[in-house]
Amino acid sequence: MKTRYQKLAPFRLGCIVFLTLVPVRDLQCQDNIVRNGSFEALTFEYPNYWTGVFGVNTGIAADGVTSAAVDFAGEFVAQTLGTVAGQTYHVSFAVSGNSSSPGLSIVQLGWGGSTVGDVTWESPYTPGDGRNFKWQYGNFDLIAASSSTLLRFERSPASTSAGTWLDDVRVLQIPEPSFLALSVLSLFAVLVRWTRPSRGNPARHASARV
Ligand SMILES: [Ca+2]
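# calcium ion complex -> structure
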């Protein structure tokens, strides 16, 4: 005959998997600290909250209908973020270009005043209307050094394509590892306590054997 523990084991396992996934789900629920990261909010055709030297594409986008264009050497788009010193953030963004010309569109990512990486988009070179966007996403985990961090995107001088476009910029705070570890340890403690066989009342067992 199955014990109470054996009967409940599959149910418990399901609960444990579910609860363990909660912190992972929360990673996806963090707020984007970039304002107007999709370049959709415009004032006189200029994206709110962004500074720099850049253009705007309408009808060309990885998200929504608008994107930024840093088509020429020296062009850039930037925004200062409110951050927490020592906190890790996940940075993601989409890069594309004019597919009617061959070449590479390379976007350099600046974080806190330093260039920390780049993303390369290679034109599929499909002459026509140039709208084979094939957006290429970059993903970076970066640590903030202070309470404000400059986020900056610039067309690399090594780019050879006809255009360099940027969209869907997101910066999400990554929960501290200690939080995740604490969650797992808490679940483990619950599991151990729940699965421990009941020893009952020794005094009562002794009495029953008499
Ligand atoms: Ca957009």
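# post-check
The mean pLDDT is 82.
The helical segments are 4-27, 177-195, 202-209.
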